[in-house]
Amino acid sequence: xxxxxxxxxxxxxxxxxxxxxxxxxxxxxxxxxxxxxxxxxxxxxxxxxxxxxxxxxxxxxxxxxxxxxxxxxxxxx
Length: 77
Description:
The chain has helices at 15-19, 26-36, 44-51, 53-59, 70-76, and strands at 8-9, 63-65, 68-69. The N and C termini lie far apart (23 Å). Helix 3 (44-51) crosses helix 4 (53-59). It has one domain: DNA polymerase, domain 1. It is mostly helical. The chain has a three-stranded mixed β-sheet.
């Protein structure tokens, strides 16, 4: 993982930054961008509702929400 590129804050990242995340394609990136118009993605559960639990787990090491890395949550489950 390149520390200069990741983690990416999904609440502030552009579409082009989001599609650079491994496992995130154009459809998932658009879902994230669309969801941000209505809510701030604050919790893992928010992201799971947007892109699904499996994809959320696969991208957890590359993203953060509100200055919290998703890997912090995956360790506690």
